[in-house]
Amino acid sequence: MPRNYKRKTTRVDTPPDVMERAARKFVDEKKSLRDVAKDFEVNFMTLQRYCKKPRTEGKIASVGYTSPRADFTKKQEDLLVAYILKAAKIYHGLIPSDIRSLAYDYAKVNEIKCPDFWPANECAGVDWF
After folding, report:
1. Which of 21, 83, 118, 128 counts the highest number of beta carbons within 10 A?
2. Tell me: the pLDDT tens digits for 82-95?
3. What is the Cα 48 distance to its own chain's centre?
4. pTM here?
């Protein structure tokens, strides 16, 4: 995917509460999926995919897609940034490839799920950097 990708559709921009109401109407009132999608002005396939997701505790699963990138918590990200800045202050600046490698090692140590190509390259992607 290009680094400056611009979305061409608005299919996934449906607010979660609208998708929840549409899914509830489909499940509870046994209406046609296409009719419900038309009533709520949401994409038919998005609603279908949303309704097929596993239900937990009587709730329909959340809207959206899972991110394939490593998600550091705010604290972990702050610690990583602090380390990089400290290295720069003592004149041991890290080049981008070193920072990407450091991010991969940090994700591995903290058992954070990361994209498949990170372990293959043993460093974070250019987009992450």
Report:
1. 118
2. 999 999 999 888 89
3. 20
4. 0.49
